[in-house]
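Example: Ribosome-associated protein.
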Amino acid sequence: MIRVTDRIAIDENDLTFTFVQASGPGGQNVNKVATAAALRWPLWAANGVPWDVKMRVAGLAGRRLTQDGEIVIVAQRFRTQERNRADAIERLVGLLREAAEPPKPRIATKPTYASRVRRVDDKARRGAVKRTRRVVPGIDEE
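Written out as structure tokens, the predicted fold is:
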């Protein structure tokens, strides 16, 4: 089990890794060895994650969430499989930690007196502009 927070843990057996050739650093070795780690984790099937956190993870994951409900994280910053594997796990844990914090509730505020006065003044000014564009009967008709 990978402990994310005190109430969230993910099972290491749920994590699936595939290794592919990475772009980037590696020199001549980069074309021979599959060092990039692609981590797949089934979000909706995870047992150690509360439902509200799953919903926030789905929103935060964006394109990393597949239609099958799996989160895919590709790590290729490092030259070795082990470091890329650890980096992918670390990024998944970071995503879960970010989603574990509930959003702050919005506190409704009233518009200030000055903003209400500005709004009324702008409306009056706009109305005056429109009044000058009116067709006056008898004078403007030809």
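The chain is about 35% helix and 15% strand.
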